Amino acid sequence: MSALYVHVPFCQHICSYCDFCKVFYDEKWVWDYLKALSFEIKDKALSTSYDSIYIGGGTPTALTYQQLQYLFELLKPFSKQVQEYSIEVNPETMDQEKLELCFQNGVNRLSIGVQTFRDDLLKKIGRVHTSKQVLELIKDAQTIGFQDINIDLMYGLPDQTLEDVQADIQQLCQLDIGHVSYYALILEDHTILKNMNYQPLDDEEDAKWYHFIRQELKKYGFHQYEVSNYYRYKPSLHNLVYWHYQDYEGIGLSAHSLKKHHRYENTKSLTRYLNHHYLENDIPLSMEDCLFEKIMMGLRLNEGISLEEMNRLFDIDFQVKYQDVITKYQNMNFLEITNGYLKTTSLGMDYLNNILIDFLEDEQG
């Protein structure tokens, strides 16, 4: 599976919890950025036709119709064999013409930033769309022919209750949505809510809400396949590339790539990027780095990690090398080995960070 990530950093509004690499929309900057993106594509001599393309942000749909059209033309040579072609969408920046443009250019998966269906809570986190706009967007998209739609939801928002979360899930399940990504509100430095000293859920409350969400979604026919991701029909192919720790290409401001045991990090400076200085860091990854990162990503998945694959890729006996950590968490009912896969139990998923710290310390020890 070959995957391409394309970052579009522009937003018309900045949400109070967001710490992604983004800048306010400016028409000239966008055109300059698209030309710089074209330079990066040519400079890297990209030639692969990818199985998965994901356009993220920022807000890609903040671009005008003409700018989106230009972006799709840039990406056309790489989408000939694409199976999953995704774009992130904010409801207030999408209209019928842009939806049709996306569909005509092969986009077959929309990821809609909903966060909650409660309009008053949306205002508290700086979102400017309404739940009515979300419902209209989904209806229009499905009428055009989009069958693969993901929505992002969040819990732990200011003044949000468990009843609000339950109502969000009930609303979600009234729609023919095939995938949901459900994230806890985590406040990073320099976000508006962090600067306002908003206190997110403590660990105990977070675990309680998380369990509730998992049970509710299961009740409505959603299958959890990763810590924060659930599907009715099929998982996201692009996301699985990351979690299976496969190589991928990333282009655009702040984008990362993973290729042949190297991580490439693009600059976060728009000025540098527009001046064609896109690459910031080339980080060689040792086999120990790769081993831990594959454990870290793989244990996020419900399926876990294949012991046979780990032994083959890293020339080790995984169960012998990590015997102490595995035994410790098996005894606590946090880890289990089933059909050749090491995975977290339902209980263990809540303690994934602790488990990973022990794997890291065992590696370093």
Automatic annotation (TrEMBL):
<protein>
    <recommendedName>
        <fullName>Heme chaperone HemW</fullName>
    </recommendedName>
</protein>
<keyword id="KW-0479">Metal-binding</keyword>
<feature type="domain" description="Radical SAM core">
    <location>
        <begin position="1"/>
        <end position="223"/>
    </location>
</feature>
<keyword id="KW-0143">Chaperone</keyword>
<dbReference type="Pfam" id="PF04055">
    <property type="entry name" value="Radical_SAM"/>
</dbReference>
<dbReference type="InterPro" id="IPR034505">
    <property type="entry name" value="Coproporphyrinogen-III_oxidase"/>
</dbReference>
<dbReference type="InterPro" id="IPR006638">
    <property type="entry name" value="Elp3/MiaA/NifB-like_rSAM"/>
</dbReference>
<keyword id="KW-0949">S-adenosyl-L-methionine</keyword>
<dbReference type="Pfam" id="PF06969">
    <property type="entry name" value="HemN_C"/>
</dbReference>
<dbReference type="InterPro" id="IPR010723">
    <property type="entry name" value="HemN_C"/>
</dbReference>
<keyword id="KW-0004">4Fe-4S</keyword>
<dbReference type="InterPro" id="IPR007197">
    <property type="entry name" value="rSAM"/>
</dbReference>
<keyword id="KW-0408">Iron</keyword>
<keyword id="KW-0349">Heme</keyword>
<comment type="function">
    <text>Probably acts as a heme chaperone, transferring heme to an unknown acceptor. Binds one molecule of heme per monomer, possibly covalently. Binds 1 [4Fe-4S] cluster. The cluster is coordinated with 3 cysteines and an exchangeable S-adenosyl-L-methionine.</text>
</comment>
<keyword id="KW-0411">Iron-sulfur</keyword>
<dbReference type="InterPro" id="IPR004559">
    <property type="entry name" value="HemW-like"/>
</dbReference>
<comment type="similarity">
    <text>Belongs to the anaerobic coproporphyrinogen-III oxidase family. HemW subfamily.</text>
</comment>
<dbReference type="InterPro" id="IPR058240">
    <property type="entry name" value="rSAM_sf"/>
</dbReference>
<keyword id="KW-0963">Cytoplasm</keyword>
<dbReference type="InterPro" id="IPR013785">
    <property type="entry name" value="Aldolase_TIM"/>
</dbReference>
